Amino acid sequence: MKKNNTNQKINHNISVKNEKVNLNAIQKEKKAEAKSAFNIKNLVILLCIIAGYFLLAYLVEYRLNRQFKSLIVPIGANIILAVSLNLVVGFLGELSLGHAGFMSIGAFTGAIFTLNMNLPGNIEFFLAIIVGGIMAAVFGFLIGIPVLRLRGDYLAIVTLAFTEIIRSIINTLSLPAGKDKAGELIVKKGAMGLSGIETYANYTWIYIAAVISIIVVVNLVNSRQGRIITSIRDNHIAAESIGIKVSRYKTMAFVIGAFFAGVAGVINGHNLSSIKPVDYDYNRSINILVFVVLGGMGSIKGSIIAATILTLLPEVLRPIRNYRMLMYAIVLIAIMLINHSTWKSRLQGNNLLSKIFKKEQVSE
Amino acid sequence: MKLVEYIIGQLINGLNAGSIYALIALGYSMVYGIAKMINFAHGDIIMVGSYALYVFIVLMKMPVIVAILLTIGFCAILGITIERIAYKPLRKAPPLAVLITAIGVSFFLQNASLLIFKANPIPFGTIIKVDAVNIGNISISGLTIVTLVVTFICMAILTLFINKTKAGSAMRAVSEDKGAAQLMGINVNRTISLTFAIGSALAAIAGILFLSQYPSLKPTMGALPGIKAFVAAVLGGIGNVPGAMLGGMLLGIIENTAKAYISTEVSDAIVFGVLILVLLLKPSGLLGKKRIEKV
């Protein structure tokens, strides 16, 4: 009997092995299919991106007036900020109010880089973006390791505190601001900020940067690591208990978010031409958070749309001048109330909404 | 001897700033304990209170005592109104949605006062006129004494209220467990309104004291003390009343010492640095209860 059993087991094992081999082969094929970047879907996306660029170029060169032209770069920068913060808040589920701090690090690093290097324009700007992003990522890593042990509101207040610390430290630093005509190094006080930064940022740069950041975040979220990050959001204890190294993935999402915040900071600095530490206070972090929450947490599309609309809104409201920020506040409260309050569900419960929609369908 | 006197003098200055933070932090902490939300608009209640005092005294020429009482009443009603309109419909919404709404309310209050009173700072003379007191060689300004006394009285009343009265125990019950409190026959909505009213009234008192020390009115004047008071609340353990008092006092002393001995510019960095250190060592604040998470 025993022998029989063992025989069966061996047979069984062999068949399992065979199946495994088969499965492996199938998976490899599938992976190969998925890995080749030249499938139809990706090609369509690529075409859309290129078409989008030409549309933007056409609008900027021929259609838009100066007021809206000047908004292209801020919109793009806000999209990068919103998408990267969404990675931390929406997908990782940790409330961070430190995005302005990373932006500030990026902006100042980038500005010091371009002021002190004498390279040809576009190369200099490209390197500045990379350097600023990496510097912000390094700080994100250093800050993230101790801080990400905290959760919820405590994490929010600590990241807010870091933003303020970064601001007051930059205030006390003396920053090298390039050389004057005599070749002497100009040193500026941090509180005065930096000025005379070349305005390299144009619609081409911001378009490329925004598209890259969106692609990176979308691909990350849909990857294995992205699933792990989302699982930490849904239940971090369960995630930990199945062997996920929670702190490592938390830090990863945080650092990637910080990197793109730094990139947006560099672009912002090279758009405004002069930057001050005061520009990157907690109000800025809160504004970015508003994009993410209004657009819907965990929705990249939502972040993009919210960042675009909320950057345009104050400009569109300009005719009513003094009331525009008041309107902005009211719109913000109203959207939150309409989206989340109980009377929305009551409306749906009474089938009022569905009745209205049905009537429309019938009339069509 | 001189060094000791100097240190005591600085300590008193720190307590002075700290007691204002403590008053504001109490509001944050109580609201957090009951409604489980960070009321970002709390700092702006200070600003509204200051402007209200200005309107009552300078524009309407009321006697000081009446104006102070009216200001406190006005802020309490404002607190209840904000809660009813903006926060109550969101009781069951995710916490971040409530947070954004609170930010919206904060923007609204700032911009509304910007429209009404314009951006230029309005100078405002102090309303507290008490002579300085000398103890040995240490001179304590009248304002400091009034601030400390008022804060002490407020805290004593609040502690008594929370621990001895029926409404106070209702508040504690709601902050422990909303559902169970409702089952025991407590009117949860009224308790939450009461909390907002008390928090806002304390913010109004803090605003009056703040205005007496920094006599100029600006629409954004509430933001920084608001944030620092919030830090104080977290430092002491948010949702905890003695914690908020301790956190506020500590914050004031640390900030003042940093300003006196190190530099004014980095004092903010030091305050926030201390917060981070405390939270890393004791993640729920100095007096906060440790919560065990269950799956």
From TrEMBL, chain A:
Molecular functions per Gene Ontology: branched-chain amino acid transmembrane transporter activity
GO cellular component: plasma membrane
InterPro entries recorded: ABC_transp_permease, LivM-like
Keyword Transmembrane: yes
Topology relative to the membrane: Multi-pass membrane protein
Alphabetized UniProt keyword annotations: Cell membrane, Membrane, Transmembrane, Transmembrane helix
Pfam families, A to Z: BPD_transp_2 (PF02653)
UniProt entry tagged with the keyword Membrane: yes
UniProt name for this protein: Branched-chain amino acid ABC transporter permease
Taxonomic lineage of the native organism: Bacteria, Bacillati, Bacillota, Clostridia, Lachnospirales
